């Protein structure tokens, strides 16, 4: 089978690399280089065997990205009766912060 020479990475890229907006349509300032690193980390997490060279790279890249994440928050407002309280969660590293009574957010659950 011949290599695909009619398309570029831009044609094959997932939406996370094609837009400056998050899945909610809100502007997201995360640079494309950083988005590529998250894409690579995700692919390695699925496919790299633990203890292999790529597995070690996956572990280290994941730690680096999580330690240095510049969070892009997605807000989840709970409705009455919801099992999960209102919070915001980082689009990239999934770190959550919980909404306080005064409207601010913190990593500690106060409710
Ligand atoms: Zn983050």
How does this structure look, described?
This protein is an alpha+beta fold and 111 residues long. The protein has two domains: 31-68, no CATH class; 71-111, no CATH class. Helices cover 35% and strands 13% of the residues. It has helices at 9-12, 15-18, 32-47, 53-67, and strands spanning 73-76, 87-90, 96-99, 105-106. The termini are far apart. Residues 69, 71, 90, 92-93, 95 line the site of zinc ion.
Structure, briefly:
This protein has 111 residues and is an alpha+beta fold. It has helices spanning 9-12, 15-18, 32-47, 53-67, and strands spanning 73-76, 87-90, 96-99, 105-106.
How would the blueprint of this fold be written?
Layout: H1 9-12, H2 15-18, H3 32-47, H4 53-67, E1 73-76, E2 87-90, E3 96-99, E4 105-106
Antiparallel strand pairs: 1-2, 2-3, 3-4
Helix pairs in contact: 3-4
Bound molecules: zinc ion.
Radius of gyration: 18 Å
Categorize the overall geometry: globular
Residue ranges: pLDDT <50 for 5 or more in a row? Answer: none
Indicate the mean pLDDT: 93
Structural class: alpha+beta
Helix/strand order: HHHHEEEE
Put simply, the count of helices is 4
* N/C terminus separation: 59 Å
Q: Largest sheet, order of strands side by side?
A: 1-2-3-4
- Biggest sheet details: 4 strands, antiparallel
In total, the number of domains comes to 2
Helix content: 25-40%
Percent of sequence in beta strands: 5-15%
List each distinct ligand once: zinc ion
The count of β-strands is 4
